[in-house]
Every structure is written in C-alpha cells, then in structure tokens.
C-alpha cells in the first residue's frame, strides 16, 4: 500500500498541483534572496518581457501599468503596488509615454536589467537541474505536453481548461 507521501496514486492534476507548489516555494526562496516578493519578481520579469515586445514592434520601450496588470492577471491597483515597490528598489523607472502624455511607461533601470539577467540565469540553472535525469527525447516530450496543457488552459482566456472540461 502506498504511503501518503507516495505520489504514484495521485491524479495528473494533483501531480501538477504538487509540482506547482514545489516550484512556488523554490521561486519564493529565489525572490527573497534578491530582496523581492514573488509578485515583485514576476512583475520585474514581466516589465522586461513587455519592454522587449514593445521594442520588437517598434513602439516606445516600456510597459504601462495597465498592460503589466493584464500580463500578470491582477487588478491594476495590485500592479501599481508592484510597480511602486520595484521603483522604490531602483529596479524600474517611470517615464512619460511619448504616445500619450497622460500615461507613463515602466522601464528597467541598469540595476533592474542586471537583476533580470541574474534571475533568468538562476531559473535556467534550476530548471536544467530539475530535468537533468530526463533523456533529450523525454525533455522534448515534456515540453510538448506542457505547451499543450498551457494552450488548453488559455482557450477561454482565463487560464482554465475548456477542452474536456465538464459542461
């Protein structure tokens, strides 16, 4: 009989939830090492991603707080609190939006860019270690499965699976 700690009898959803909890703890510990909360770290990485996308599209570099809120899936007020904390830490700056003088853009400061690179490097190392025992074909299959699950979860725009879900 499997013990309560034995995951072999858990459903796929329960296994994913258990992994998500483990990764949340790892992420929270990593954020704390940099003096950030997990939400602030996610916000910092999101500003970097949104800034890169804006530049690729030829737009002004930076991210509006409303775009950050949408990207993080939080209320605008929560995104403002994250932006305030990142600005107070010297990781982002608010700059006028050249396309709308009433709006401001969040841009990474030099310390913010440096921290983004360190966080990405650390995440990559942790991720590589987590799948180190998988063969390259198993890694590729895991990636395909995860992308499929993410796509199914995004089908309704709220991150909840729609395919195969009960009516």
From TrEMBL:
The keyword DNA-binding applies. Residues 9-151 form the HTH marR-type domain. InterPro entries: HTH_MarR-typ, MarR/SlyA-like, Tscrpt_reg_MarR-type_CS, WH-like_DNA-bd_sf, WH_DNA-bd_sf. Transmembrane segments: none annotated. The keyword Signal does not apply. It holds the Pfam family MarR. Keywords: DNA-binding, Transcription, Transcription regulation. This is MarR family winged helix-turn-helix transcriptional regulator. It comes from Ornithinimicrobium kibberense.
